[in-house]
Design brief:
This protein has about 210 residues and is α/β, with parallel strands linked by helices. About 40% of the residues lie in helices and about 15% in strands. It contains eight helices and seven strands, in the order αααββαβαβαβαβαβ.
């Protein structure tokens, strides 16, 4: 800690908030001081929401998306196109694509990307279930909507090799997303167009 704190309780709380992604010490301090000035009931409601999230949240047994139920509302929706599965890194990407209102199929959340530098291999991702879903007769196309990064491209190529023997069309989102760009940070118009103008994936690296 670079700051000098008059209270160990304050210092400990700031340290915990500063562990969150993208939160520095000064921002953490503002958050803690904000909560310190709230009523007990407001702080208890805040803490309770986090505890309930951690203890009660589910990951959909079909697609891996965050859900309140064992199977998420997207997988159970009768009006979704069940022949399309959009493969994404995590739930943030599902939210980003849903916000475009340009896609009406299903999703599959991998739970990360292959990254040897970070010790993340294929066995750490939700790939087995994807292969199972891809082999079903109703599945016509898999849209590989992964970030345009080295890790994203590595994961796409790995999936392409694993899916070679399965009679399902593979496509990747159009490069409206700049190289190095992540899906969750793309604006809705660009992301929507990238989904609509997707192109067949031909395994260019093979």
């Amino acid at each position: 800690m670079n700051m000098n704190f008059s209270s160990k309780l304050l210092e400990d709380a700031v340290a915990e908030f500063a562990r969150l992604p993208g939160i520095g010490e000064k921002t953490a301090l503002r958050m803690v001081l904000f909560l310190l000035n709230r009523t007990d009931s407001e702080v208890e409601k805040f803490a309770g929401a986090l505890l309930r999230l951690k203890r009660e949240v589910n990951f959909c047994r079909e697609c891996g998306n965050i859900s309140d139920e064992p199977v998420c509302s997207i997988c159970t929706a009768s009006k979704r196109d069940r022949s399309l599965i959009c493969v994404v890194e995590d739930s943030r990407d599902v939210m980003a694509i849903e916000n475009t209102r340009q896609y009406n199929g299903l999703y599959h959340v991998l739970g990360g990307l292959i990254s040897p530098m970070d010790g993340i291999g294929p066995s750490d991702l939700n790939i087995g279930k994807l292969l199972e879903r891809a082999g079903k007769e109703e599945t016509r196309e898999l849209i590989l909507a992964l970030s345009a990064t080295m890790e994203g491209d590595t994961t796409v190529f790995y999936l392409y090799k694993k899916l070679k023997g399965i009679p399902v069309a593979l496509s990747s989102i159009a490069r409206g997303i700049a190289f190095g760009g992540e899906i969750e940070y793309a604006d809705e118009v660009t992301l929507g167009r990238s989904i609509l103008t997707r192109v067949p994936y031909k395994g260019e690296n093979s």
